[in-house]
Amino acid sequence: MKMGGGNKVGLYKGNDIATLEKQYEHSLEHNIQELIVYFGMKLKKEKKRMDELFKWALYENILKAAMELNLCEYIDIYYNKLKEKFSMLNGKKLNMLKGMIYEIKDKKKEALDIYKHYLNKFPCDVTIRARIISLKKSEEKDKNKIIQLLNDNLKEFPVDIESWHELGEIYLSECLYNYSIYCFEEILLHKPTNLYYILTCAEIHYTINQFEMSSKYFCLAIKLQSNNLRGLWGVVMVNVARYSQKGQKISNDNVDIILTRKCLDRLDNLYNKMKISFIYKNTIINYLNELKDIFK
Q1: Three-class SS of residue 274?
Q2: Key word Endoplasmic reticulum present in the record (predicted)?
């Protein structure tokens, strides 16, 4: 198994606790629920002396992973361990875990009561809001009501990026492109260098023939990542749509044409340098050469 940063970690053997700990941390870092449960339980069994803080964090992580995997037996075991230790505190974290368990057991009203109680105390808690929205959506079949639910949440809490994203995806699925762009551009106010959202905005603008804005977003993606294939192809396809289909005269001093040529050259260079061979590689290179002829 390879760890982040290129460090190699061998398979766990015998009482090699250090390797086991690294594999557990790797599972947490990459959010691999099955391995969090597996290595977490191995650690619990074989690490005889465990720091108290680490121990209870370990139990919590195993519990959360078990909830994701719907492993009811482990959910009960590790929740009861945490409850036995921390129930006297009647704290937010333990009760939120209890609410999540209620969700799994289809006790939605009980879960919602817990979340609403804590939302009154912590109105800016994104996690609580997300759980409430998720619960309400699970009971709602009408897409228009889900849209209203997300909009109501965003009026109260406009920095909820997940809600903006979900709302944008719903609008996109309904072909409401201008509404969708608004949502994704709102996210870019908070994550201005996020390539996913930059390229999403570029592609939606392209879809509704807003080529100028589309080109600007694709260029921003290339500025942030010079060999970004979606960005390079985006600039090319925008200008194919703008010039070749309309039969406009291609001028050598036109900035769009110069930019397109540079993108075509970079794409050609990238594909030719690829050491792996894939089925459409030659077709792509031939198509790039055809486009170069168009933009001479």
Answers
A1: coil
A2: yes
- Same domain as 223, residue 183: no
In a domain, 32, yes or no: yes
> Over the stretch 229-261, which tens digit does the pLDDT of each residue have?
999 999 999 999 887 655 555 665 588 888 999
**Residue 125 domain-assigned?**
no
Structure tokens at 257: 């044409």
Written as one string, the DSSP assignment of 193-254 is T-HHHHHHHHHHHHHTT-HHHHHHHHHHHHHHSTT-HHHHHHHHHHHIIIIITTTPPPPTT-
Q: Phi and psi dihedrals of 2, rounded to 5?
A: -100, 140
Q: Determine if the pTM surpasses 0.90.
A: no
Instruction: Give the other-Cβ count within 10 Å of 23's Cβ.
Output: 22
Last residue of a domain, one of 63, 89, 115: 89
What is the count of structural domains for the chain? 3
